[in-house]
Amino acid sequence: MARFSRIEVFKVMELTGMVPLFYHHDIERAKKALLACYKGGARVLEFTNRGDYAHEVFRELNKYAEESMPEMILGVGSVTDVGAASLYLQLGANFVVTPVLREDIAIACNRKKVLWSPGCGSLTEIAQAEELGCELVKLFPGGTYGPGFVSGIKGPQPWTSIMPTGGVAPTEENLKAWFDAGVTCVGIGSKLISKELLANNNYEELEKRVKDCLALINKIRD
């Protein structure tokens, strides 16, 4: 069962402005990466469902978060079918992120009052997602659409909350463009949590990157 309500999850995403995301097959490295993000100030993180037995890694990560990081909200991303969504919900996922809009996943998450964020690429898809109860739309791949797409959506639908993922970089120029366009938060993967950092066990640098990125977002939004 999720530790945090969908409203709590959304509020933390909105407050911090950033959702780091990564996958690693090694449980111990994944734990260290999660802790580094937490120490850097992140309070929400997406573990991507991209490898064999990813759910086993997630299960251990979520237990670790519950025991050692009481404020960390851990969710799962890259969920493409309702079976996987249901499995992760049983493992305590606090939110579910999908690359596409699927009504069956929406129903499964809504039934347990867990936040779900579908990948959308048109105003029609966004409207459909919101009709299904979506709080936060994932713009994916973000780099393909760009900040101009966000500001275009916010014109007729100022109530829409958007999280671009893909094409987001932890630089002032990139982040300013997204937040000026009206995004609620951003999802950042390999440009923040790179494979090199994890391969080299450079968790101090990861902690610094997360801290610096959050500081940039706060500066931009002030």
Fraction of helical residues: 40-55%
Count of DSSP helices? 11
Number of domains: 1
Number of strands: 8
Write down the oligomeric state: single chain
| Low-pLDDT residue intervals, each spanning 5 or more residues | none
Q: Kindly name the structural category.
A: alpha/beta
Gyration radius over CA: 16 Å
Task: Assign the CATH class.
Answer: Alpha Beta
The spatial strand order of the largest sheet comes to 3-2-1-8
Question: What pattern of helices and strands is seen along the backbone?
Answer: HEHEHEHEHEHEHHEHEHH
Q: How many strands, what sense, and barrel or not for the largest sheet?
A: 4 strands, parallel
Q: What is the CATH third-level topology name?
A: TIM Barrel
Strand content: 15-25%
How widely separated are the two ends? Answer: 36 Å
CATH superfamily, please? Aldolase class I
